[in-house]
Amino acid sequence: MKKRLLYYVGMSAMSLALMGCKGENATDPEKEPSLTVTQGAQKEGEEVSPTPMVLVEEDTTGTPPAIKDVYQELFSIGVAVGTHDVLQEYKLDVILQQFNSMTCGNEMKADSLLDRRATLESGTEESPVINFSRADIILSFAQEHGIAMRGHTLVWHSQVPRWFFTVKYSDDASAPFVTKEVMLSRMDSYIRQVMEYTNETYPGVIYAWDVVNEAIETGDGHERGLRTKDSLWYQVIGEEYIEKAFEYARAYAAEGQTLFYNDYNEFVLKKRFAIINLVKDLKEKGLIDGIGMQSHLQMSDPSLIDYEETLKKYGELGLEIQVTELDVDALDNSEETQAKLAKRYKQLFYTYKRLKESGEANITNITIWGLSDDGSWLNDETASYPVLFTQLLEAKPAFYGAIMDESIPLY
Ligand code: G3I
What confidence score (pLDDT) does residue 380 get? Predict the structure, then answer.
């Protein structure tokens, strides 16, 4: 591979050694990376802030490319971020340089927005109170810097508190659920408040909404493949909650905002059938504009053929396709594995480009699910190195794969 890496390094410390890329902070994306100085002005072991930062190019023959520019004629390139990303200068520099779309990793989910204390104080049985303080940090950053955002996510069985479904918003584990009618009112109110607030406060920032997320779970035995067992939305409202969510979202969306159904393992055959049936129905009713293919992938699974076939099948529906949460679970940081990862990213982007250019799939956005390896959700019990930048924000071989650099082999 050509040696052409993009480095963001501290000006004062000559050598910064991570406390292991797999180190103690790797599992907690909320924490700042911990850096230990091994040489230079600071004392050994002293923790330093990674700022101020400078961009250093190893290859003096050219400026490292921005992935957003490489694909500007085809689709926008996004990144999932948290408040910890946009509050750290050295990270926001990379976000601004590389990406033209962002998604909140957690800050726009129901468990982050719903405010139980305020709801008990001033909400009504039909209408909860929402607190935008965490989301505001990211939305105002996007507004200030002119980065478009995907709204993720309005209705999801996960990361929504049980008390949102109970009589008087009780958080007692055995509290009874409200009626279907009350829950529909709460859903309507929630979607209205989230969309109206963001559209009025940050006009033009959000261009697409994941209206319903992960509503298909074919293992649950429902005839249409709907998730039933762990979805309180399904249990309290019944299967019409999906259509209702899209109806409300359509009613409150700003002009030009597109509405998506978003799911994972979207390439598994059974699931693909169920998703296609669901969105066909919504499309006939004029309620949906696109499919979000999350694309949390393994190194060799799905095969490129199956993945491409899925893109084409969704493409045939005439809906927009956005790759909303792309990452590839690479379990170690060895040169060999990372070279394989780079090839995987090159194959994926090659496929996206080809299908967009041929008109087989109207792909409008690709979002990488995490700025750097250390902040990835895949770093939980086991380490993973799944995205395009290292903890020090070095562009990985995977980055060069994603921009389809000639240094990375396609096969
Ligand atoms: O905010 C708390 C923090 O206060 C606490 O100290 C810390 C201790 O563990 O936990 C923090 O919350 C974590 C949160 O991420 C923020 O870091 C949660 O435990 C953790 O479960 C949560 O994980 C998120 C996951 O969704 C939850 O389902 C990931 O960051 C987020 O990337 C991930 O994203 C989802 C998409 O929304 C939908 N598709 C799948 C994708 C990956 O799971």
Answer: 87
